[in-house]
Amino acid sequence: xxxxxxxxxxxxxxxxxxxxxxxxxxxxxxxxxxxxxxxxxxxxxxxxxxxxxxxxxxxxxxxxxxxxxxxxxxxxxxxxxxxxxxxxxxxxxxxxxxxxxxxxxxxxxxxxxxxxxxxxxxxxxxxxxxxxxxxxxxxxxxxxxxxxxxxxxxxxxxxxxxxxxxxxxxxxxxxxxxxxxxxxxxxxxxxxxxxxxxxxxxxxxxxxxxxxxxxxxxxxxxxxxxxxxxxxxxxxxxxxxxxxxxxxxxxxxxxxxxxxxxxxxxxxxxxxxxxxxxxxxxxxxxxxxxxxxxxxxxxxxxxxxxxxxxxxxxxxxxxxxxxxxxxxxxxxxxxxxxxxxxxxxxxxxxxxxxxxxxxxxxxxxxxxxxxxxxxxxxx
Length: 379
Prior knowledge:
alpha+beta, conserved putative lor/sdh protein from methanococcus maripaludis s2 fold, Elongation Factor Tu (Ef-tu), domain 3, six-stranded antiparallel β-barrel, five-stranded mixed β-barrel, 3 helices, 25% helix
């Protein structure tokens, strides 16, 4: 019989080496594929341009600007008093109604003056006889028939009676209230027969034909205000209505604690719309500035580092934006005055800034938010 061929034995070391080579090949392939995918992805992303963002724009042109100083205060009358009685007594007559208009010198209220009037009548009745006695004594003194003491006593009696009459008249006047000036009375809070103490308030009297307003401004703005400058006053009582006023006076003293100074304006009020105690806002009109940069307020973006605006520039046949830091020196709620950071002729983004960054491509939307009647474009 023939013999079978013998199997060739594989050395163990060679098997381990083949296994290691196979594992390295597989691992290297995975790593290589991963690096290849990262390379192609990064290359794709670097070559891919972000989509353009729709924005509305505004081209900067030289404009004029009306600067102003804003302040708040309260309206008060040029003439206004609380009427009170100088003497104590019982109210005998009331000559006014709540809210009534009175003329200067018109009687408003009178206390019971029966005793004072009776004493006055008695003194007036004795005045004629006392005067005749004085005249007779003078004649006798000139003739030498009366001593100097008789003349002195007669003169003293006459002058004393005149003083009593004057005092009684003053007392009666002090028991009455008359209007010191023309104006409107307040509410009536007294009644006939009521006992009034001296100095007790009866009602208010205010002349509302002209009002005034006390304002407070920082001392840093003192150099910008002068007496006679125009002021516009608004109040939430009459929305949309502007009252014209004039700066009347500037307090010569600056508050050392707050660094502020008080100024006072006079406000014509012929139609009696303004009332005492009204809260109002004043705008002191400063000289107009010409050829300045004014932009829409929505174009300004507020950041942690200040304020900035996106300026549209043409790069590589596309419109892109760049951030420009700006300095806003004044604003009126709709527009802002720019003192630094922009130039005439530049085109800036007004709306659509949410998705913008440096070098972001944009395209312009025809409808502009500068017209408040136009709808807001959606990004």
